[in-house]
Design brief:
- The complex is a heterodimer.
- By secondary structure, chain A is of the alpha+beta class.
- Chain A has five helices and five strands.
- Chain A has a five-stranded mixed beta sheet with strand order 3-2-1-4-5.
- In chain A, strand 2 (74-78) and strand 3 form a beta hairpin.
- The longest helix of chain A has 44 residues, at 2-45.
- In chain B, the strands form two sheets. Chain B has an eight-stranded mixed beta sheet with strand order 5-6-2-7-1-8-9-10, with helices on both faces.
- Chain B contains eight helices and ten strands.
- Helix content of chain B is 33%, strand content 19%.
- Chain B has helices at 14-27, 44-47, 90-100, 125-129, 146-162, 187-196, 214-223, 238-251; strands at 2-6, 32-36, 56-58, 62-64, 67-68, 71-75, 113-117, 135-142, 166-172, 201-205.
- In chain B, a hairpin with a 3-residue loop joins strand 3 (56-58) and strand 4.
- The chains are: A alpha+beta, B alpha/beta.
- The interface between A and B is medium-sized, with 20 and 20 residues.
Chain lengths: 161, 254
């Protein structure tokens, strides 16, 4: 009887793990789709002034907490938007922002909704953890860059709606 | 010259005194900056009504502090969303503060004195701030009450242990305008501790009920969590005069 219970618990555990794995994959797909949407809107709406102001600012965002998948996604955030970088070249930035997928989704959703402090909120709350010798400065840069993205997108939405 | 305004107890008026001191130094003709190191709960930007100001990117990856009423001000209040708790782990916060006090991280204009507002603690961020290059001493803020007295003694011990000179003790708003005691201890009780600790300057700044007076304006508006515009006209109340007096004492060559 005990053995049967143990086997049942193992089977349940396997089901849960499988479900979590599926859920996390869905989240990744959702994140990438949203990223694609942010980037498309941004490219349609960004002005040369925006690009000029943000020139030279770039940070790398590493998606963490993907317990069920051996996947590490790197995003490059600069004045031209947010994009996945693969392969990741460490020479492009010296600061890492580590954030779990739900945090990245909140940032991207916020940016799409024109929330200028979407990233700073995650930073303040300790969800997006910034590491590096210039972490504070680059955290501000990141926040500022996402803020600009959000503002640009809000301006664009205002024009098309 | 860098001065830290400190107390390990919250609510004694560190930020108000920081801004008041900066204003007093400015009135003495000095070029003044304020560094708000109350990293998790900044409020200098609110006192100076500069909460909508945006930081600018400066040369060499520095951050440029806005100049508010002639005072250069850096506060994390310019970065954190106003309605979000700052919950990151202590090691990350301390690391940020360490980076902020490195010369060149903030593009300060030419300054004679930097007044640093510190958070109410004796660890982490405060200990990091005490490593600040050019730090000359501390102004401690307390009140004449049993609870504040206990924290005051701990604050003095902190700086004695760290071998940082305490220049002045400000006994803040512990008497009313008529000199009447407001809490359970007298100003003389606190002054005696300051004297025993050989602290050269002791100033009692009275609380004032006058609506148009400097401190009352600050305290009332702050408690309503609204931006406060410091009066352009220099107020002539006793609190202000005491601060100016202190600024003269602190900047007088020895």
């Amino acid at each position: 009887m005990e053995e049967a219970r143990g086997a049942l618990a193992q089977a349940d555990k396997a089901d849960v793990e499988k479900a979590l794995e599926k859920q996390q994959l869905d989240e990744i797909v959702s994140c990438l789709k949203m990223l694609d949407r942010v980037q498309k809107i941004f490219i349609q709406s960004v002005s040369s002034k925006d690009l000029q102001e943000a020139a030279g600012r770039r940070c790398v965002l590493k998606m963490t907490g993907l317990r069920h998948h051996d996947i590490i996604l790197f995003f490059l955030v600069d004045g031209a938007g947010v994009k996945v970088v693969d392969p990741y070249d460490p020479s492009v930035a010296n600061t890492w922002i580590e954030a779990p997928i739900d945090s990245i989704l909140r940032v991207l959703k916020g940016v799409l909704n024109g929330d200028e402090s979407a990233f700073s909120s995650e930073w303040a709350r300790g969800k997006a953890r910034i590491r590096g010798k210039r972490s504070f400065h680059d955290g501000w840069v990141f926040g500022d860059t996402f803020g600009r993205l959000a503002r640009t997108i809000a301006r664009y939405k205002g024009r098309v709606e | 010259m860098n001065l830290i305004v400190s107390s390990i107890k919250g609510g004694v008026g560190k930020t108000t005194v920081t801004v008041g001191l900066a204003k007093a130094f400015q009135k003495s003709g000095l070029r003044v900056g304020i560094l708000d190191l109350d990293y998790r709960s900044p409020s200098v930007h609110l006192l100076l009504a500069s909460n909508h100001v945006e930081l600018q990117h400066g040369p060499g990856d520095s951050l440029v502090p806005p100049v508010v009423d002639g005072i250069a001000v850096f506060s994390t209040g310019y970065i954190w969303p106003p309605d979000k708790a700052v919950m990151m782990e202590d090691d990350l916060a301390v690391e940020d503060v360490k980076q902020l006090i490195v010369p060149g991280a903030i593009a300060w204009p030419e300054l004679d004195i930097l007044v640093v507002d510190s958070p109410p603690t004796s660890s982490g961020i405060v200990l990091a701030a005490l490593e600040m290059p050019g730090l000359t001493g501390v102004v401690t803020v307390t009140q004449a009450s049993t609870l504040s007295r206990a924290a005051f003694l701990r604050t003095l011990d902190l700086f004695a242990e760290c071998r940082i000179p305490v220049y002045a003790v400000i006994c803040n708003q512990s008497v009313d305008e008529n000199g009447k005691q407001r809490f359970d201890l007298s100003v003389a009780d606190i002054e005696a501790i300051a004297s025993e600790s050989h602290i050269p300057v002791f100033v009692s700044i009275p609380h004032t009920d006058k609506r148009d007076s400097y401190f009352d304006n600050l305290v009332l508006k702050l408690s309503a969590v609204q931006p406060v515009v410091l009066p352009r006209k220099e107020p002539e109340d006793r609190a202000w005069k005491k601060l100016v007096e202190l600024s003269h004492k602190l900047t007088k060559p020895t």
